[in-house]
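Fold this complex.
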Amino acid sequence: MGLGLLASRALRSSRIIRNSTRTIVSTPELKNADAAAAAAAADAPSDLPKRNPVGGARVHIPNPDDVIEVFVDGYPVKIPKGMTVLQACEVAGVDIPRFCYHSRLSIAGNCRMCLVEVEKSPKSVASCAMPALPDFVLSSNSGLVLLVLVENQLKYSHCISAEKAVYMHQTHDLQGPRMKIKTDTPIAKKAREGVMEFLLMNHPLDCPICDQGGECDLQDQSMAFGSDRGRFTEMKRSVVDKNLGPLVKTVMTRCIQCTRCVRFASEVAGVEDLGMLGRGSGEEIGTYVEKLMTSELSGNVIDICPVGALTSKPFAFKARNWELKGTESIDVTDAVGSNIRIDSRGPEVMRVVPRLNEGCPSFRADLKLDLTSTLPDINEEWISDKTRFFYDGLKRQRLNDPMIRGADGRFQAVSWRDALAIVAEVMHQIKPEEIIGVAGKLSDAESMMALKDLLNKMGSNNIFCEGNGMCPNADLRSGYIMNTSISGLEKADTFLLVGTQPRVEAAMVNARIRKTVKATNAKVGYVGPAADFNYDHEHLGTDPQTLVEIAKGSHPFSSALKNAKNPVIIVGAGVFDRDDKDAVFAAVDTIAKNNNVVRPDWNGLNVLLLNAAQAAALDLGLVPESDKCIDSAKFVYLMGADDVNLDKLPDDAFVVYQGHHGDRGVYRANVILPASAFTEKEGIYENTEGCAQITLPAVPTVGDARDDWKIVRALSEVAGVGLPYDSLGAIRSRIKTVAPNLLEVDERQPATFSTSLRPEVSQKVSATPFTPAVENFYMTDAITRASKIMAQCSALLKK
Amino acid sequence: MVHMARNMRVPPNSASLAEAKKRTLEFFRMCCRSIPEIMEIYNLYDVVSPSQLRSAVAAEVRKNSNVTDPNVIDMLLFKGMEELKNCVDHSKQRHHLVGKYVVGNQGLVQDLGHKDQGSSNFLRNFYSSNYF
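Structure:
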């Protein structure tokens, strides 16, 4: 708890004096706040130990003229202009209690918990909404008088004439006119205690049955800053619970009207579903009409709710937060690679929450601040509903024993020894060119490397990753990653989306685009089938002909691209499966060339991938020798591949399925080799922007399952073509010789060459319209298809 | 015999190595005398013979043949006595004895290794568990 500092100070000072008369206010010195303040001022601290900013933040000030200095509890701090008092306090290492303030949302200033005392201000101020001023504003008896003093020189006066201002300057003692913020004075403490008492007046005392218990801001702050008793004896108010769908559980009586969820829904999620109804004690949060929250980011309101009003419905009454073990890992349900924390209890994943940059100060992006966190800025602190709630799929439909399909068509559990022996035997009876390997969408880089090495040793080079199409172009890395980077999208002012619907393909990228559109009014042009967007966009067309028009400059949108300073083109990975993909990419390249999209200082040409494995597969060169290899295959090794089209596969082909879920791939399989899911293994995944990240094992494997790369390694030895690595370290050094960028974990590796090096293509674009790449946002892979919660969500989606 | 084992108690410390040796021999004899009863109560006839059990006990004693400190020998004797008492009192179950004195310290499941002959450490570990 970052509030520990203040809390301990509050507790320490409360023990100093004990008056014989007991009052409601538990801190006796607060009874006479003014006198205590005067006493405190008398013994000003002389030598102050150095304090570090909250969360170890560094302040970057691009323009030295914009520096101002304020005093926080007597410590001088240098901050850039435009910061609030609360942020100044955080730079000074003081964490201010707050409920309504959230660093990634707009400022509401309605909870009043962050009140601090500012010298020469008549009242305590709400620090989250008050800008830190270079020089302080005075108010005199004759109305508002503004004296702006810079370095003790009168620079500007307002409301009064200059002579009068000079007179005022001379008559008032204005030495050291820096803003002096005081956070631990009796006035500030009394203010917090009072706010706390008001908040608790109508808050139910149901912490023992509340799911937020243990991680509740209200609970923590009432322990730290609240009074030990309340004066409220009437009935508490109660509010009717709202139905927000299968994901968010509401107990609206607990709501303290901080409006974080309302601001989140309208600012980040882009749905105007939630609002504030009523006034005074009748005030409540709701949807006004009975309506579900239809956003793919709705689960984030659970995290931002400071109390237990909005909690997770699937997690309700399942566990307490102190029983859970958190493992910082990576989400693999889409290509974004959101940073998540997997909370587990024993062998069970209990919930998934976004990784918070713990204790990171509340700085907004517009303030040019550098967070020391080394984590790549991928998903801010939001995650999509799929990422948050698919975890129950990890407990269903799991494969736990090696199995062989018998003559009667039924699977029979066998030992690993027998299963591997049979696979190895069959593999040797088949001609090398008839062996193919398919990596699934959830495969990690290590296992793909091992599978490729195994197949190459067997003499086959037909290996590919599903989703990349049958003839992917892996030569130029810039041709398949997001060159702008996800956080770089915020600098763009014009977007052209080609055959991609980011809202369902990569919800976090969509949130970034929406943020940019909201902040800078960036233009968005979209080419593709009719789709749902939560920001203003122009639907330019549905087929690639539109691209040719834009490339020629005959389309109205091309002028917008031409005038853009930082244009961004995003091509969806669904295009990889089109027959005319080379022509589409050529048209996109022409557009990029004509509009200066790729410059030394800006690369706006992007591909938005769909699956977690795609980028690493292309980096490792998982490209099939022939695009018709499935038609003639006799031995297929599916490594978690469920969505590959096997219709053309000959009936006598032998199919090995290695994976963790009994999903589509298993129906055709002859042998099943159970593998561990991403929550159970350590593996490298590269996201769509080219940033390699590592998952960590949170729970043990199920049954007799093994890690993917170990299965491939063991099979290679049984087949007599032993792979030369026995450990994760050894396989990673093998990866280093193929794609060294995969070992630069948590650091985005930009592509070196631009796509302008691509050879000319003579192919013509077809008139076939683009098709949606993701049919159902909630069910895209084996784990999400096994999830009950995702099934409920998709049922609602269809309605 | 039974009451003798039941009334076992801690004797005073051995004064010399010779006395400790004598006590060890006495303890070993006591074990040998209880073996028929142990065979009976744990129904061990089909898995082991009395002579095999005797050599198992002797091997346990010989394991500590290098110990020369009388105090340490006394301590080991005490532990042996405790074990013997547990066996005689039927405080153990059959598999405890089978595991410890019949199959030996390798455990109940013995990998004879004829299948994995010539395979690497990796493969042997792979067959036994995912965590290595």
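The mean pLDDT of chain A is 85.
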